[in-house]
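Reviewer 2 asked us to include a model.

Predict the structure of this chain.
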Amino acid sequence: MSGTLNKVMLIGYLGDDVKMHYFDGGNCIGRFSLATNEVYINKTTNEKISSTEWHNLVVRNKAAEICEKHLSKGDKIYIEGRIKSRQWQSDDGSTKYTTEIQVTEFTFLTTKKNTENNKQIQSSEPTKNTNFDTQNNDLPINDLPF
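Predicted model (structure tokens):
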């Protein structure tokens, strides 16, 4: 096999709200951190160990706007993307490095914003009448339409 593959799939929780950055020409990126957890049992002590890994995620343009609109800290999301490392010069002249996940696909699993909106919609809806009037009193009760 001569090809290579750079693919990441994660399910985790947002560590903060999506931070948007806008550029000339109308392009934008959204950045947020994602926490994934691993839980295992230490075989020698039978102790339950939990460790959290933090991932820096980047979404672009329309996808970034969708994420900003619907996601907030604590929401659960599934993402697919690729790993990308980059470097830059800081103000003090030192070279900084970071590794990010460039998101290509995502699915919202739980969102607080949608849950809050649904609760508001449900509470503003009038209660529905569940008493059904039988208008065809002349039909026998066991008469099925099929």
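The CA atoms of residues 115 and 121 lie 10 Å apart. Helices lie at 61-70, 112-124. We have added this to the supplementary material.
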